[in-house]
Amino acid sequence: MPIVTIKAVRGVHDILPADTARWQRLEAVSRQVFEAYGYKEIRPPIFERTELFARGIGEVTDIVQKEMYTFEDRSGESLTLRPEATASVLRAYVEHGLHVLAKPVRLYTVGPMFRYERPQAGRYRQFHQLNLEAIGENHPALDAEVIGVLMELFRRLGLADRLTLSLNSIGDPACRPAYREKLVAYLRQNAGRLCGECRERTERNPLRALDCKKPDCQEVLDTAPSILDALCKECGEHFARVRQYLEALSLPYVVTPRLVRGFDYYVRTTFELLTGELGAQNAVAGGGRYDGLVQLLDGPPDPGIGFAVGMERVVLLLPPDAQDAVPLALLIPLGDKALVRLLPVAQAMRHSGVTVEVGYGVRKLRNELDRANRLKVPYVVILGESELEKGEALIREMGSGTQRPVPLDRLEAELIALGGVGRGAEPPSEVR
RNA sequence: GUGAGCGUAGCUCAAUUGGUCAGAGCACUGGACUGUGGCUCCAGGGGUUGAGGGUUCAAUUCCCUUCGCUCACCCCA
User: Fold this and answer.
1) ipTM over the 0.90 cut-off
2) Nearest nucleotide to A288 by CA–C1' distance?
3) Which residue is nearest to nucleotide B38 (CA to C1')?
4) Which of A121, A217, A289, A403 has a CA that sits 20 to 30 A from residue A353's CA?
5) Which CATH class, in words, describes the domain spanning A17-175+231-317?
6) Minimum-distance nucleotide, CA of A197 to C1'
7) Alpha-carbon dihedral of residues A400, A403, A404, A410, nearest 10 degrees?
């Protein structure tokens, strides 16, 4: 190895072959679930004008203030690698007039996000999200639907019983300011028992003080006024109906009045899917309603709701794949003549969608068999001088060690017959 | 951005109070075994011990700096 090696940038990581099967499974199941609910994929670019995120996420949020990958392109324009997907999706929604479609417009997207944070367990600078958005409808049944999609995804992944759904309503511009005042008053009253940061938050962003983890602050916050008692009539009713629909769908949840989220744009319903298995990074997914955001991005006054799933965190929870896909057979030619005869056989099998590997005819049979053993292939085809003379090849079953001659012109058909039994193209995996 | 712990072969890890300490296992390639594997034995490739500097007769070991990893704060997916 050279003295100076180029390594991956801090906080980003390679997804290696040993893990890609899990990733592919997660993506496949997600698409199945989302599309079953009528959501269509959209693929926005991974960078946008910086202004889009500044406006959409909120100028005073941590993400915008200190976590964005922002750079100037050669024309001097300020661009930013997306730290989240919703702003991009809504920008595309407005830009291409998708609001004329039958509402709600149901969209999802899958891909990398970028945030400049200190890497940690389950937290990366480039990470991947599944994002789902339902735009143009404010009926509480849509809130329940979106949460239902999320829960169905995790049910299909077999993870539902290891996660809990936290649910809250954070009101809207009609009622939140009043609550904010009450909370600030309470926090000021008890400022002496709060940590320094929470005292700062009291003035700058009081809602964020609610999820401070320090025990002393928790104690103070336990008796703080609850947002749920301060909701206006409309918000209270909306929340009650969301709960009613979730119950109708038998979806368990825990009302968490102190659940606040990092983006400014959320109103009313907010939710998180939490796990106890990932250390400090306990949120596997999060989302909420964002009525008003489309308008903020120069679009029509369409309401919306959506969620994001952290794929790395899900993958960490998924059990490792039981078994790698292995080729059906290793074709072992002994010598170049045999190689020439086997190459088209391999090609034909691959045309049929059956995976095989071919040796190069230069190694000893012993070593090739040893290799076949380690590849865990169930069958091996041996073609040497004597077989060539007789116009046949040997098919050896590695498990039993038995082998039988097969006429060369029947070889391909025989192998495909062997591969037809539960091998080759796997049906879409139904993950329990 | 703050704090703590840790960086030795592709992987997992050794190396007495600084003194043959640069090693083992796994993996890889080959040989023992002229065309029949899973066992065993043997051999080989691969490291300026993360990088740079300092202390010392001598540094993997001690000190400083730096980079990276891990965990926590913070934030969130």
Assistant:
1) no
2) B77
3) A373
4) A403
5) alpha beta
6) B74
7) 90
